[in-house]
Amino acid sequence: MAHAAPAGGFARTPDVFDAKVHTAARYGIPVVLGLVYGYWAAANRRDGGPITGWNLLFGFVTAIAFIVLCIAVATFAPLLKRELHSAVKSGFAGAAVGFLYSQTGESVLRSTALGMAVAAGIFVVFFYRYYTREDGAGNRIR
């Protein structure tokens, strides 16, 4: 044998972060995204006018709703089959974009159309990702 046999290794890449970092990220990322989303929704609704107490309340309530829904989707969507998994995540993203757009004063029809277009595009991307990386039972193959 002229060449050495390849060394046996891990089937997966090693994880450089410990469990505490993953737990902090699992809740930290939705909180940061929710605060940005709440500020964005409040700014859209304010439309350049003065910042009021009701505007701040709207922003914080929107942020809390986004955080709760984002954590729920991230927790429960992976338990579903790949089709429903893709549909839940894309539906959440489409509804979030449609709600933001509706706060600008546009019609409900345009907001719905934009939300559905975003959801359809994200569904295609997520479905392709899960279809190529999971078997029919939802087990990862890569």
UniProtKB/TrEMBL annotation:
Assigned keywords, A-Z: Membrane, Transmembrane, Transmembrane helix
Transmembrane feature ranges: 24-42, 54-78, 113-131
Name by which UniProt lists this protein: Uncharacterized protein
Organism listed in the record: Streptomyces canus
